[in-house]
Specification:
Shape: globular
Order of helices and strands: EEEEEEEEEEE
Number of helices: 0
Strand content: over 45%
Distance between the termini: 40 Å
């Protein structure tokens, strides 16, 4: 059974940092694209970052502030978030994607990040 479990969310002041983690199980983690999405209140879910085996790619809104990484031994994916802004407040979701699998994507339950003074 596929599971994606996010952790590390919380309340942080503007300019602060958080590191989100996503623990994956039930599939061949190293061959899947791992992605982070977020959904702010009243808005659609938006893509934040993705990583395969090399470096990450990022949405323009987080480029230079967020870093995605993965540990293919421990089946973990991380999102290091620095210089957080109030507009980063959202529920952050971990996503696993593989175009050659069915279903092709799985989601975690989300973790809340709130940036406020």
């Amino acid at each position: 059974q596929v599971q994606l479990v996010e952790s590390g969310g919380g309340l942080v002041q503007p300019g602060g940092s958080l590191r989100l983690s996503c623990a994956a199980s039930g599939f061949t983690f190293s061959t899947w694209v791992m992605r982070w999405y977020r959904q702010a209140p009243g808005k659609e879910r938006e893509w934040v970052a993705a990583i395969v085996r090399g470096g990450g790619i990022y949405a323009d809104s987080v480029k230079g502030r967020f870093t995605i990484s993965r540990d293919d031994v421990k089946n973990l994916v991380y999102l290091q978030m620095n210089n957080l802004k109030p507009e980063d407040t959202a529920v952050y979701y971990c996503n696993a994607f593989s175009s050659s699998s069915s279903p092709s994507a799985y989601w975690g339950q989300g973790t809340q990040v709130t940036v406020s003074s």
